[in-house]
Design a protein that fits this description.
By secondary structure, the protein is an alpha+beta fold. The protein folds into two domains: 136 residues, no CATH class; 34 residues. The strands form two sheets. Strands 2, 3, 4, 5, 6 and 7 form a six-stranded mixed sheet that branches. β5 and β6 form a beta hairpin. The longest helix is centred in the last third of the chain and has 17 residues. The chain is elongated. Bound molecules: zinc ion (2 copies). The site of one zinc ion (ZN) has 6 residues, from loops.
């Protein structure tokens, strides 16, 4: 759905979109959308400044490879958003120098904003920095390569034993 300023000059645009998995590209091979993404809301134009205001709510279930064990980690996302996009003149260079208080502001160029871009950014921002299948995920054993959430390999204790052996030698 394209939020077109020409249309927004005439009326507010209600948003009610459903994106099936695969429609939105997240540009991340380790990240998958596994449910429909449902977004509802409204887009408005502040005519004095030509800023586009996009408000709404989105829900989706995302899946990523766990950072530690590489198994699937699931992230249900449900969030409200209230965003302002300021017009960027076509003549302005790509690299715009922003004052510190402006760094939170988003921009649009040309005729408007693609809702998919808005949604993608909100989903990526909502995901945690570390994507874990479980906060206590034990990861993959660096010695034998087994998933330590599944297999209770003895490599860890062996390593600890070795460490004690070194310490014993040191004390001796
Ligand atoms: Zn894990
Ligand atoms: Zn092991």
């Amino acid at each position: 759905m394209f939020l077109n300023v020409q249309e927004l000059l005439l009326r507010n645009l209600p948003i009610a979109e459903v994106y099936a998995p695969g429609v939105i590209d997240y540009f991340d091979a380790h990240l998958r959308q596994v449910s429909d993404l449902v977004v509802t809301g409204i887009a408005e134009l502040r005519q004095a400044t030509m800023e586009i205001v996009v408000r709404g709510r989105l829900e989706v279930l995302m899946e990523a490879d766990c950072d530690r064990c590489l198994e699937a980690a699931r992230f249900p996302i449900s969030l409200d958003f209230d965003l302002i996009y300021r017009p960027l003149p076509d003549t302005m260079p790509e690299e715009v120098v922003l004052s510190p208080e402006e760094t939170e502001i988003a921009f649009y160029r040309g005729l408007g904003i693609e809702l998919e871009d808005v949604v993608r950014e909100q989903v990526l921002l909502a995901l945690p920095m570390r994507r874990l299948c479980h906060p206590e995920c034990r990861g993959i054993c660096p010695v034998c390569g087994e998933n330590r959430n599944v297999v209770n390999c003895q490599c860890q204790s062996q390593w600890v034993d070795d460490r004690w052996a070194v310490l014993r030698n040191f004390v001796r």
